[in-house]
Design goal:
mainly alpha; single chain; flat
């Protein structure tokens, strides 16, 4: 379970840094989240 939390923390940091420094990544991440949330709402 400890590794799961480390994975979540590292994923969050990588996501935040990529959104700040790589142009266009934020749109891709937003589309991905909306796709998953749309599937979960069904």
């Amino acid at each position: 379970m400890k590794y799961f939390y480390w994975f979540i923390a590292v994923s969050l940091v990588v996501t935040v840094l990529s959104v700040w420094f790589v142009p266009g990544v934020d749109d891709h991440i937003e589309q991905t989240f909306q796709r998953y949330l749309g599937q979960a709402a069904r």
